[in-house]
Amino acid sequence: MNKYLQHLLKNVPVSPGIYRMLDSEGQTIYVGKAKNLRNRLRSYFRSNKEHTVKTRRMLEKVVDFKYSVTSTELEALILETNLIKELRPHYNILMKDDKNFAYIKVTINEDYPRIQIVRKIGRDRARYFGPKTAASKYHEILHLLRKIFPYRNCGLEIQDLGPADGVDPAKQRNVLVTRASIKYPCLDLHIKRCLAPCIGRPSLEEYRTIIEKIIDFLEGRYQGMVDELQKQMREAASLKLFERAAQLRDKIQSIEKLFEFQAINTPDHHHSDVVNYWRQEGKAYFNIFQIRDGRLIDQQNLVLDDSRNGSTDQEILSAFLQIFYSENSDIPQEILIPTPTAHDRIHEQWLHKICHHHVKLISPQKGKKEKLLEISLENAASFARQSRVKWEAESANDREEGLENLARLLGLKKIPKRIECYDISHLSGTHTVASMVVFEKGFPRRDQYRHFKVSLETPGKPDDFFSMQEVLMRRLKYLRPGQEHKNSLVLRKIGNVITVKAQKDINLKIDILSGNKLKTFLGPLNGPNLAAEKLIPALAAKIDSRRIYFALTRQQADSFEKFGLQKLRNNPLEQRCPRGHQWLVLDKSRLHRDDSFMRTPDLIVVDGGKGQLAQAIKATEQFNLEIPLLSLAKRHEEIYLPGSKTPLRLSDNDATRLLLQHLRDESHRFAIEYNRKLRKKDYTVSALENLPGIGKKKTALLLKSFGSLERIKTLPVDKISEVIGKRSAQLLKNTFN
Question: What is the crossing angle of helices 696-706 and 717-724, to 10°?
Answer without folding.
Answer: 120
